[in-house]
Amino acid sequence: MRGVLQRAAPIAASAAPVMILGESGSGKEVLARALHANSPRKDKPFVAVNVAALPGELLESELFGHVKGAFTGAVTAKRGLFEEADSGTLLLDEIAEMPLALQAKLLRALQDGEIRRVGDTRPFSVDVRIFCATNQDLRACVAQRRFREDLYYRLKVFTLPIPPLRERVEDILPLATMFLQQHEHRSGRFTARAQRLLEGYRWPGNIRELANCVNHGAVLSGGADVDVAHLPEEVVKPRPSPEPASGAVLRTLAEVEREHVLRVIEACGGHQADAARVLGIGRTTLWRKLRAFGIETEE
Ligand SMILES: Nc1ncnc2c1ncn2[C@@H]1O[C@H](COP(=O)(O)OP(=O)(O)O)[C@@H](O)[C@H]1O
Ligand SMILES: [Mg+2]
């Protein structure tokens, strides 16, 4: 992380695009905000949008805005995020999920510094610094023709890869301690046994998962030291226990489903989009299931 931050300092000062790579929850948006806050644009807006959260047509009007009557439901004109971020920075999160047709429009906007609202004929100029973030191998997406090569090279002037938390074990306890101190039950600490578990776990959800785990522990310990018993089950027992012999325990369909869904997400390194593909369901369906399981999802 020190190496990443050292490289980040001069990059922050420039006006060039930055591509931030890293697993889900590893801190890509945090780094993007830090770059912006250390850039000459720091007093101008920072706007973040999750490209994967909206279908193509909606995404286009979200990014570029639309004129009144541009499509059914466009009862008023709307500014797009490019306009909101004018003279500031726009983070395009999960850029790999952007539909090809929109990639072409984004490329044009970056090349010409001009955008056109949906339904409008007149382009106008904007001054937006673009950051993008992804947990996917974009080069592979280019090879599979899911991502435009020209856009790829335009976006990756600078790339900053964030290592997953399990590859920087020495960061786990300082971060966990900070999260614990931020919690309202801040009096306790981690017992030595709890510390060992935190350092030994794989953290497929990275820092986001660590923060949730610490909150879990802080609530259950109620201000006393956080011990093994207060940590979430998956941290204490990281490997799913072998299937009980058939007939030993009869479980409901819902229990089996929950277990399987969580196992697939872990096998996909916490990437929900990949997990949804493996499970053969839509991302929204997966998201709804996770919510029903009481698990915090990525926005
Ligand atoms: N270096 C850090 N220090 C403190 N909290 C962090 C750090 N990096 C990430 N987080 C927290 O972890 C969570 C996930 O970070 P985020 O930037 O949204 O990850 P990503 O965009 O890679 O999914 C957020 O709640 C964020 O505040
Ligand atoms: Mg994110």
What does this entry look like structurally?
- The structure is a single chain.
- The chain is an alpha/beta fold and 299 residues long.
- Helix content is 45%, strand content 9%.
- The protein is built from 14 helices and seven strands.
- Strands 2-3-6-1-7 form a five-stranded parallel beta sheet.
- α12 (253-267) crosses α13.
- The longest helix has 16 residues, at 206-221.
- It is globular.
- The model has no long low-confidence stretch (mean pLDDT 91).
- The structure holds adenosine-5'-diphosphate and magnesium ion.
- Adenosine-5'-diphosphate binds at residues 22, 24-30, 175, 207-208, 211.
How do the helices and strands line up, and which of them pair or pack?
Layout: H1 2-13, E1 18-21, H2 28-37, E2 46-50, H3 56-64, H4 81-84, E3 89-93, H5 100-112, E4 114-115, E5 124-125, E6 129-134, H6 138-143, H7 149-155, E7 158-161, H8 172-182, H9 192-200, H10 206-221, H11 233-236, H12 253-267, H13 272-279, H14 283-292
Parallel strand pairs: 1-6, 1-7, 2-3, 3-6
Antiparallel strand pairs: 4-5
Helix pairs in contact: 1-2, 8-10, 12-13, 13-14
Bound molecules: adenosine-5'-diphosphate (ADP) and magnesium ion (MG).
